[in-house]
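Hi R.,

As promised on Friday, here is the backbone we talked about, encoded as structure tokens. Could you run it through your design pipeline when you get a chance and send me back a sequence?
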């Protein structure tokens, strides 16, 4: 038999057992300072329970149906369990087994267990019934890996003696050197087995069964107990295959097992266990609906939460319930006077000497009454039995003190509107959330606004429009907000207020434009207008739809308008957005004299008296001035004008002016008519000379072509009664008459 240690050492260590606590990642939390009792008989110093980091405690699992006990000498599973006569020499507090196949292997077995054996005074494993036998609990991690081939040789299958196994389990990672495995031939295959029992090296120490670190870093022992969600009450599993399991610790660790062997093969996460056994013991602490968070509470408020205790410890005990204690697996916390324990009105827990019977349950209340400044509060509620025979239970309760009112603003509102219903909005913020925003209109019942994030919105019902004569009603808007702090309705914000006027009547407008409805040569007509409204906002003047800036004052002349038709309008807008546009009859501006023409005249003529004329707008007047003479009126008949022009020899400059019916005046481009007499002075000399005769001869025989003026000078023949009588042509007759004039200047 295996020797553990001397009997005397065992007894010495048993007398030193006390409740132990270790860091959260160092294994189980604590164990019972008293031995497990079976039918009132102590079972060889075996602790009554071990407790995990999450508060779940397990006792020796002696239920043959659910714990799959392994028989040891002196144990008959067909008979009732009793100590020491018929008690297993080796069994479990907790056992989780995963058996699966992975690449490169025919079989993999992983065992994670908290179990116990009995040892005699010499440290040998003995049946529990052996006189003086003492129970020795320990944690076990066992890996049994069967490689295909190799006939027991790791070298034959390529495993280096320096290789490492990595086991990832719910409590961390354990790395195992190949040198720690025992490998043997198993039907031609290589089966390697590793078993790590804590305590190691024959040291019997109950505290060691809590787990350790440092085997091969990183490393972790059991920290919590896995549980099959389908297991019956008070049991971790059923002893049969578990569909799934929970209990990984710390948070974030997987509820699975994975193996990476020295060849690099990996099993992947295995989330199904072959067997899961264990029997729980202790205080079942049922939390209030909603958990342990008391919420946000005002300093003047109080929130009471009811907790329930169910005694599954196997012994009757008096619960000691304290607030502001330290959680068993945490560093000390600052005591919070905000949380107090008070008796529950229904099924109160016993106090003083009274005890909570086995299987009985009771209630206690935790009051959260914030004290001091705003902020989070935390306290640990601890339930113990005093001596420590019962696994303690605890819960961390939280709450938030909030005495600060929300920040509320009304930012989106039209104080004047022409719509009977209006959407208003604003902001509402609070560190702990907004409970409600309400809107009150004209003192009516508050209505709830819609709150989204830090904003709120609300649509009013139909609001009565304002009467222009009285200016009523003016609707009063009051917005209130409360945060989520208890008691309801919470801290109240300072009200936000405003008013709304519903104005559906547009302004009254009058307009007169000088010359409206007519054509006028006044390009700066005077505009006269009025605009009246109780809530008048702005009045503008528009010409042909375009706003004139700056707006002319009523009774003032407008800026110069361009010639042509124009629509002048006044637009008045009130604060509610109602618009009144009033347009005057079209005014047409005409600052240009109506068109008049001059029928073309002969620029060079021998005729001194002739009629000139042209066209003109009916009703217009025309004046004609010749040379420096005074202008004289022409005759206007309908749209034609005529004027008898008496011309003098030489150049006659003629000026024609007109005036239309509007009084616009204009002058036609200046014209001139040159009167040339038949005098033979073709060359322009002061008297007729031989050169004139020669010039006339050239014209007569066709050597050169005379200009119009030359032709008039040269056309002197025939002479009638000694006076030239032009015949509109230059011929030899004209040459003869001119020569005669050269010879005898007085001849004609």
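Update: got your reply. Pasting your designed sequence below so it's all in one thread:
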């Amino acid at each position: 038999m295996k020797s553990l240690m001397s009997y005397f050492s065992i007894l010495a260590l048993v007398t030193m057992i006390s409740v132990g606590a270790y860091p959260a990642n160092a294994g189980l939390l604590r164990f019972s300072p008293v031995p497990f009792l079976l039918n009132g008989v102590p079972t060889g110093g075996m602790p009554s329970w071990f407790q995990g980091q999450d508060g779940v405690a397990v006792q020796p699992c002696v239920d043959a149906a659910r714990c799959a006990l392994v028989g040891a000498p002196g144990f008959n599973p067909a008979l009732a369990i009793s100590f020491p006569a018929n008690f297993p020499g080796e069994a479990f507090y907790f056992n989780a087994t995963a058996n699966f196949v992975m690449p490169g292997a025919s079989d993999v077995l992983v065992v994670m267990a908290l179990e116990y054996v009995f040892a005699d005074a010499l440290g040998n494993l003995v049946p529990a019934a052996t006189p003086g036998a003492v129970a020795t609990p320990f944690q076990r991690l066992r890996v049994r890996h069967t490689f295909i081939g190799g006939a027991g040789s790791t070298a034959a299958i390529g495993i280096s003696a320096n290789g490492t196994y990595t086991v990832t389990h719910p409590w961390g990672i354990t790395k195992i050197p190949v040198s720690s495995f025992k490998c043997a031939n198993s039907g031609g295959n290589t089966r390697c087995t590793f078993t790590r029992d804590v305590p190691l090296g024959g040291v019997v120490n109950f505290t060691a069964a809590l787990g350790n670190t440092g085997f091969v870093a990183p490393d972790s022992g059991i920290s919590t107990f896995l549980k099959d969600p389908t297991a019956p009450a008070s049991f971790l599993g059923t002893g049969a295959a578990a569909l799934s399991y929970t209990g990984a610790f710390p948070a974030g660790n997987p509820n699975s097992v994975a193996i990476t062997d020295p060849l690099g093969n990996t099993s992947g996460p295995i989330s199904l266990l072959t067997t899961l056994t264990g029997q729980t013991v202790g205080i079942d602490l049922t939390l209030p609906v909603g958990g342990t968070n008391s919420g946000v509470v005002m300093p003047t408020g109080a929130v009471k939460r009811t907790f329930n205790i169910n005694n599954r410890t196997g012994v009757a005990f008096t619960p000691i319930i304290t607030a502001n204690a330290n959680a068993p697996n945490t560093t000390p916390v600052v005591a919070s006077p905000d949380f107090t324990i008070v008796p529950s009105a229904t099924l109160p827990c016993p106090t003083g000497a009274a005890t909570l019977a086995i299987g009985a349950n009771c209630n206690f209340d935790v009051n959260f009454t914030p004290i001091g400044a705003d902020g989070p509060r935390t306290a640990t509620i601890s339930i113990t039995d005093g001596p420590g025979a019962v696994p303690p239970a605890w819960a961390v309760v939280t709450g938030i003190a909030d005495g600060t009112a929300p920040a509320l603003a009304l930012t989106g509102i039209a104080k004047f509107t022409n719509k009977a219903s209006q959407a208003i909005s604003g902001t509402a913020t609070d560190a702990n959330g907004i409970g409600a925003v309400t809107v009150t209109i004209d003192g009516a019942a508050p209505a709830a606004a819609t709150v989204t994030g830090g904003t709120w919105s609300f649509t009013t019902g139909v609001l009565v429009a304002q009467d222009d004569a009285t200016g009523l009603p003016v609707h009063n808007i009051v917005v209130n907000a409360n945060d989520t702090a208890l008691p309801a309705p919470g801290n109240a914000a300072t009200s936000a207020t405003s008013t709304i006027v519903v104005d559906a009547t547009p302004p009254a407008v009058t307009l007169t434009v000088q010359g409206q409805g007519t054509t006028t040569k006044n390009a700066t007509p005077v505009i006269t207008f009025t605009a009246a409204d109780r809530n008048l906002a702005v009045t503008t003047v528009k010409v042909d739809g375009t706003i004139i800036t700056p707006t002319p004052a009523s009774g003032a002349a407008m800026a110069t308008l361009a010639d042509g038709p124009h629509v002048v309008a006044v637009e008045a807008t009130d604060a509610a957005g109602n618009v009144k546009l009033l347009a005057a009859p079209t005014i047409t501006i005409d600052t240009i004299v109506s068109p008049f023409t001059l029928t073309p005249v002969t620029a060079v003529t021998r005729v001194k008296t002739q009629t000139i004329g042209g066209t003109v707008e009916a009703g217009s007047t025309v004046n004609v001035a010749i040379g420096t003479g005074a202008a004289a009126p022409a005759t206007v008949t309908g749209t034609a004008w005529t004027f008898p022009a008496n011309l003098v020899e030489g150049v006659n400059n003629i000026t024609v002016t007109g005036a239309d019916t509007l009084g616009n005046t204009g002058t036609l481009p200046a014209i001139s008519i040159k009167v040339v007499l038949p005098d033979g002075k073709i060359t322009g000399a002061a008297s007729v000379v031989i050169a004139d005769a020669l010039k006339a001869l050239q014209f007569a025989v066709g050597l050169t072509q005379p200009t119009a003026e030359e032709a008039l000078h040269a056309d002197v023949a025939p002479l009638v009664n000694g006076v030239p009588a032009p015949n509109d042509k230059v011929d030899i007759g004209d040459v003869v008459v001119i020569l005669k004039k050269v010879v005898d200047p007085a001849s004609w």
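One thing I noticed while checking it: Residues 224 and 425 are 53 Å apart (CA to CA).

Thanks again,
M.
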